Amino acid sequence: MATRAARRPRGIRRVERWLVGLAMAVVAFILERLVMRSVRKSGESKAQPAPTRVTSKGGEVDLE
Questions:
Q1: For the segment 24-52, what is each residue's pLDDT rounded down to a tens digit?
Q2: pTM above 0.70, yes or no
Q3: Which of 9, 41, 55, 58 is deepest in the core (most CB within 10 A)?
Q4: Distance CA 19, CA 9 (A)
């Protein structure tokens, strides 16, 4: 059986592929911005907790 050689896309098909590629790049850029913004916001909300002072009296430990 003879295989059909792949032809280069012409005209409207080439423009269509270019536009789809451009749209995918825009979507990827927007998703990356949203993810980075959410990572930054979650980093700010997880502030360091206040230090806990531990007092030990023999066998007991009191957390203040």
A1: 999 999 999 999 999 888 876 666 667 77
A2: no
A3: 9
A4: 14
